[in-house]
Amino acid sequence: MKRRSLVLQLLQAGRKTMLSAEGGRLRFWGIGLATCLLALALSGLALAHATYEGREIRGAARAPQMLSESQRSEAVALWSWGTDDVDGRQHAVVYIEPLTSDAPLPPGLTRWPEPGEAVLSPALLKAGEREGIRTRYGTLAGTIGVEGLEAPEERFAYIRPRAKLLDKQDMHPVAAFGLRRDGIASLGESMSISDFSVFGAGLAGFTLLPAAGLVVAAVRIGSAAREKRLALFEALGAGMGSRMVFTVGEVVVPALLGLAGAAVVISPSLVTDIPFPWVDFTLSVQDARRAVPWLAAAGVAAFVVLAMAAVLLHPRRLAVGSTRPASRVQRQRPWLPWLFPFAMLFAVRGSELAGDDLRLPVYALGVAGVLATLPSVVAALTGWSGGQVARVGGKLGRPGMLVAGRRMAAQTRVTARFVAAVIVMIGLAAQAQLWTGLLGESAANAMTTRDRIGTSLVTISPYSEVRERIREFTAALPSDAGLLLARQTTPSGNGDETLAITGSCAALKSIGLSCAGGGPAMDGKSRDARIAELLRWTGGGTDSQVVAQEGRVDGAKPMAGESLTLLAVSLSGDDMSVPRLKEAARAHLGMRASAEPLGNSWLMGATDLAASGAWVRLLGLIGACLTVLAIGFTALAEFLRFGREAAPLSVLAGGNGIFGSIAAWTLLAPTLVAAVLGSVISLWLTAPITVGGRQPVPDSLYLVLAAGASMSAVLLCLWGWRSTTRLSASWRPVGD
Questions:
Q1: Which of 300, 363, 424, 612 has its CA 20 to 30 A from that of 82?
Q2: Residues 6+ apart with CB under 8 A from 409
């Protein structure tokens, strides 16, 4: 009983100590914030895992149970799938045809659509409104329910083709819906997103690591009251166990408040779907509710980690002595900063001079060298800039600048660590964006083709041998569009590939071809840009022979070693409406017919990379803010310790404005400098890596990260100003 009473007294003593002085308050709120952010980071991983798991569950529920051709008579429906895109983003389309009146419905549908009807997901309907998605696949028959979608924002469509366009031989017989071993699970949105291991690693790197750094910084913040209480414990002969209980008593209340704050942030996701900013993603309430046990485990883990960190990493008690501020002797290797410019040159120029096989390893080695030598450069610049700030402050009669500059020059380690951490975080975010959004050569060529010819030439596939379908499609074309037939020999590597183009004289002339027919059309130098790009993408090469002939485009039969492709060309050379061509192709040519600009599949891949880049920007912003808070808390604790020593300055300066000036120069100004330096260095490092002259890292990334870091620094600055002001108000002169 006495032991239990002693434990309770120690816990209560720890709780009272946390709020007894300004340093204790900083430790209190720092631990609370660290617990909250750590719990949110762990909860983010739990929600991400639940989201991926939910995708698999809902994807498996709508996957067809395939039958073999010998079992076609047992099928209750026919099923097939394809792809389409809206605004450059690919989505899946599923063709369905019931064979019995009681055929089971795919999840998300309330009835089988009639022939010529389509059911779209709400996100696809919204995204394709400008492109006329309501009528592209036929008559709109409703929207897909959430149980039939992998995610609330998934773009997905069920199409029941018109009877005359239905191709049963191109569809698979199915017995029901719901994954079996022979089913298809990876269909839809999950086909174009990264695995959980990749996303989870990025989420942990940008959120969990900075949150853990904030935990370490928060538990290592000391206070005068805490040091006195620990000294009393030692004098009374208290053992290690008593000090551990006392430390746990300190962190219980702020940690519980932090968990409560995390619960408040997470709770809306358990009530409704939550859309995320900048990324086309909505967190499903079903997935969030499935993750409740893991969310509870994340909270418990955050509390345990915080308590263990507080016990194992508690700050050493400072010796009580003189209150006169003293600079610390800080040693660093004097030659290390001189390696920084060589590392920069090695990363930027070395990768250009290295061969193709060594280019990326040389670049990665150079970037690692830059990030390794950067802190020493920052420390040297901090000491030099502190002296300059003090000199300017002395000339202008600004005591805040004078004191802040002297402090920066004498104690460079805290400021240098703060600035270097922000720069490194911006650099890592830029590198993640670089390698995530790095286009392949084909994607870069596709973007170049789009810039050159736009949509003035569009390929129509597949070619239909039914004359009436091509005639109907030709009649549905816009007045400014002409139809051509491209007959190409299969590339054999012998250099004798030819491209024969047939069509009306007006359509041939619009792309610079002669209507006479027979001989070669023109040489490579004088060809129309659309012909050159067509040759680039059809595999024959830009040196292939082109032959033009006026004639009909319907009723053609491919010969051995030939392929037939329809081309829609703009007679005026202006861009055509690709969505309108897609709708006409699906309405008249076939259920799978589509119209695409040259290299469109690679352009859609580039769009997927851009979506991944949006996640990097969002996570990079979170990481930058957390890094400023984590390292900034250490700087703020040092600032408050200095504030206790500098409290008499409020009397000499005639007010508390001096503390605001000191906080601005020691907390805010270094962050702004770090944001600028981080952006410039990252821009320099990412400049050598381009494909097709395109830079994968947008300028907006640097602006977003710099803005997030600066706002976090403003909060720290205001907190430091308020805390030192309270310290100065409680200061009273005493005799030595």
A1: 612
A2: 383, 386, 387, 390
Q: 174, 304 in Cβ contact below 8 A?
A: no
pLDDT in tens, 110-146: 999 999 999 999 999 999 999 999 999 999 999 999 9
pTM: 0.79
H or E segment and range at residue 603: helix 600-645
Sign for the pseudo-dihedral over CA of 14, 16, 21, 27 = positive
> Do 149 and 201 fall into the same domain?
no
> Is 130 among the domain residues?
yes
**Which pairs with CB-CB distance under 8 Å and at least 24 residues apart come from 517-526?**
517/547, 517/548, 517/549, 517/550, 517/551, 518/547, 518/549, 519/547, 520/545, 520/546, 520/547, 521/546, 521/547, 521/548, 522/546
User: What digits encode the pLDDT tens for the residues 407-448?
Assistant: 777 777 777 777 777 787 788 788 777 777 666 667 777 888
Cite the beta strand spans of 506-640 per DSSP E.
545-550, 562-570, 594-597
DSSP structure class, residue 138:
S
Count of Cβ atoms closer than 10 Å to residue 31 Cβ = 28
Highest averaged pLDDT of the listed ranges 11-15, 44-48, 661-665, 705-709: 44-48
Does 432 lie in the same domain as 478? no
DSSP 694: B
User: Beta 545-550 vs 498-503: how paired, if at all?
Assistant: parallel
In 3D space, the residue among 585, 706, 693 whose CA is nearest the CA of residue 84 turns out to be 585
Q: In the prediction, which pLDDT does 693 show?
A: 62
> Tokens for 46?
């739990």
Total domain count, the chain: 4
- The number of C-alpha atoms within 13 Å of 428 and in the hemisphere containing its C-beta is 21
SS3 breakdown of the chain: % helix, strand, coil, rounded to 5? 60, 10, 30
Which DSSP letter does residue 278 get?
S
Least confident of 279-288, 337-346, 640-649, 680-689: 640-649
Let me know whether 238 and 302 are in one domain: yes
Contacts 24+ apart (CB under 8 A), 583-587: 583/132, 583/135, 583/136, 584/473, 584/476, 584/477, 585/460, 585/473, 586/136, 586/137, 586/138, 587/138, 587/476
Contact 63, 179 (CB under 8 A): yes
Query: Residue 327: what pLDDT?
Result: 42
Q: What is the pLDDT of residues 657-674, one digit of tens each?
A: 677 777 777 777 887 888
Confirm whether 384 is domain-assigned.
yes
Residues 55 and 88 reside in one and the same domain: no
Task: State whether 521 and 617 are in the same domain.
Answer: no
Residue by residue, DSSP assigns 318-370 as PP----S--PPP----TTSTTHHHHHHHIIIIIHHHS-TTTHHHHHHHHHHHH
Residue 90 belongs to a domain: yes
The range of the structural domain enclosing residue 239 comes to: 1-60+195-320
**Spatial distance between the Cα atoms of 475 and 186, rounded to a whole number of angstroms:** 39
Q: What does the alpha-carbon distance between residue 91 and residue 193 come to, in Å, rounded to a whole number? A: 12
Residue 549 pLDDT level (bands cut at 50, 70, 90): confident
Q: Greatest CA separation found in the chain?
A: 110
Confidence tier at 329 by pLDDT (50, 70, 90):
very low
Q: Is residue 594 part of a domain?
A: no
How crowded is residue 597: how many other Cβ atoms within 10 Å of its Cβ?
Answer: 23
